[in-house]
Model the fold of this input.
Amino acid sequence: MRVCILTWGCQLNHHKSEEIAGVLAQAGHTLVDRPEDADVVLLNTCMVRQRSEDKVVSRVRELARLKRERPLLIGVGGCMAQGRGERILGICKGADFAFGTVGLRSLPELIERARQGERFAYLPEPVELERLPALRQSPFQAYVTIAEGCSHACAYCVIPRVRGPLRSRPLKEILAELWELAERGYKEVTLLGQNVDAYGLDLRDGANFAGLLRAVGRIPIPRVRFTSSHPAYMTEEVIAAIAEEENICEHVHLAVQSGSDRILRAMRRGYTRAGFLRLVERLRRAVPGVNITTDVIVGFPGEEERDFEETLSLIEEVRFGTVYVAAYSPRPGTPAEPLGDPIPAGEKARRLQEVLNLTRRIALELHRERLGSTVEILVEEHLSEKGMVLGKTRDFRTVLAPGGPELLGELVEVEVSGATPAALLGAVKERVA
Done:
């Protein structure tokens, strides 16, 4: 059968869709890009915020209209299905079946059950760590999951419920996958986990994230990234590995969420504002030029104007390269759910916009400091309508330059001549050997 996979959410979810594609390809199914060309549409969902769920419900409604015109099976899976449980089939009325975040090797059988007319939800508890074949979307960039789930349980976060507790992959298994990618010529790999710095805490062999980074440093892949880091778990050994291993990129995504100690305690983050600032200082001292990006939540229950002002002042002090900001959204089954959602939507929208305005100003100032410099990028996209290529620097800044599709997947040097809050602009000088 022809299957189309639609994906929402984080990089882990996008890699999970690659694994779903791998399982289905092994079973003889054909992957297609458009629902209009498919016999089966699978939705790999996110439920970090209510808005993510609303988008899925709307998409299922659209697909249900397509289903009235011709035979089509609709499967809703991933975090939203896991979190909502059996109710997901009532929420997504046009869906034929639901599947969760684990047990994905069963997908060919689930599709067959749905084809036979059964409507059901298959939602095993996320306690096992699956090793699945991946049908990778890129021949030069790859995701490698090092751990799934999280055992920290921040007050607002639904991940422990829908992804389960921390489950780390054996170190040898990760390294074998990375060596395979190196032999296939991959130029960039991103190590994935809900909390990569907690890697190995559930293992009994002494493996940890710093040791993993040291081992990765000996593998001939030019660029290695990782996401996401939790400030309460990053160690001096991890910082030293970032600084000393040549292929570990100078970028750390360090989610702060708030600049107020009162709100950080309510969020159960496990660190203070001062502790976060000390961590930033240690990172910048060890890794000159490191780009620190972050996540911020505005409107958490109980956040007063003074708390919000402390978040703004933290952003100003740290000068993050990018801030991904979201308005608080209550999530089912989380410790914060009983607190409700007391801050009005309009007030949350104002705070969100203030964070965006501040971070865009800082980003433009940081980008203007690069004018006249030469940066190395890995070309990720060819924008044919503009005759330009898009790539990222080692420290995860976006660069646009005139160029053709022959540069895709190449490491090139770009001389920077312009800057916007979103990107550096320039011209390709030469390819990097």
